[in-house]
Amino acid sequence: RKATQLASLLETPAVPDQYLVPDITNAPALQTSEFTKWQLETSRRYSDDPDAAAAKRAAEIRADVERSPGVSDAERQLVARRYRFARDIKELALMAELHDEPIDEQAAQSVDGLVTHTLKSGTKLVLSEEAHQMTPALLNPARWESRRQLKDRVYAVRIDGQDYILKEKKTPRHTDTKKHGHVEGLTSEQEFKTAQHFANLGTLEKGDVRLRWEKPLGYVEFPDGYSFCLFERETGLIASGASLHLQGEIEHAAPAYSQEFEEIGRQAKQLIADREDLFPSEPRRRQSGLTRVFEWLSQPFRRKAGSSRSEELAFDDFAALKAAYTEDEARDFLGETMRQAGYSNSDLDGYSFKIIPGERPKLEIVGFDFEYYQYDPQNAERIARNVTENRRTASSIYLRYSPYDGYHRSENRRRFSEAASYVMLQQRGFRLPPRRTTTQE
Prior knowledge:
Elements: H1 2-11, H2 33-45, H3 50-67, H4 73-100, E1 110-111, E2 114-118, E3 124-128, H5 129-134, E4 146-149, E5 154-159, E6 162-168, H6 188-199, E7 204-206, E8 209-213, E9 216-221, E10 227-232, H7 242-252, H8 258-274, H9 289-297, H10 299-305, H11 315-340, E11 343-345, E12 351-356, E13 362-367, E14 373-375, H12 377-390, H13 411-427
Parallel strand pairs: 8-13
Antiparallel strand pairs: 1-2, 2-3, 3-9, 4-5, 5-6, 6-10, 7-8, 9-10, 11-14, 12-13
Helix pairs in contact: 2-3, 7-11, 8-13, 11-12, 11-13
């Protein structure tokens, strides 16, 4: 049955490449009769000359269809599946080639820290010397115990009970491409060398933040351009909400933060006294009966979160702000280190976090996904200047707020939370907004 299904799939005519521009995901959608009818009706409805407007729109649609009729969702899925099968077949072919031309694990020589094995077909396999010593068959799919797709170009492979990450070079026939169309990134060889450069920096520390990059192990390049790179797999990464996890750790490690908490609170109180223009009082609003009932029901939580008459910064507000700004500092540290090395990255989410427990917990940021790293010192310097310029003033877009600053917050608590936020921004090099002035009419 499966053989019949596969044969049926292979016999299905291919979608012409010219219809898949710029890539599978962003290619124009199929122009259906229902959508065409809706476009013509809309043109007629909003025009003083309905017939002329409909005729003009029909001509535009006809030109668009002649240029590219578009592709249906089923066709997109078909193309993506076929290319996944093609990549699978390449790995099967690699297995067969390595069976006939195996790597001599004992005689393999390292050159500049790399062990290279080139097959008669022109396929090149490269391993770091360390990876070759630990797992010499790392790049041989025949030794993989399993392979599981995590994302469009990312797979988890298991070898000798150990998990690794495989990343294919992204192409227009992958589905997870940039918003306005596929952009050519680094080759697997370039991705490996770039990752190796940053991994060799080791673990860097700055305050409560640690920084490092994922470790590359090797790559394979086929003559037709298909390639993939293998990395060590990171464990314990936080997919989202790193600051919330860190906030909980800070609250549990309160004694380690007592001095900083007291100093932030003192400076926040002084800032409130010196800059009343930053903290205008909220106008009292007439409350509905339902709102008054809800506030009465929420009083136990408000007492737990902090007294409404408090003239001090609450520790849970401090912990929330400290965690949020530490996450910001981690991202900044990664960006600064990257730019200092002369690189920029158009993919802005190539990192994840870990909590490092201890008497005073640290937030570790791990950089990965090097496909859009670009070595351009001049561009990196330009970006660095823009970042510095944007931080001259601590405008409200950089303010972080305590999650307790909701409908149940008191005005005093809101004021101290905002003041502490400004203080923490100043510690990071931001300037306060200019003093607001009022004019008498």
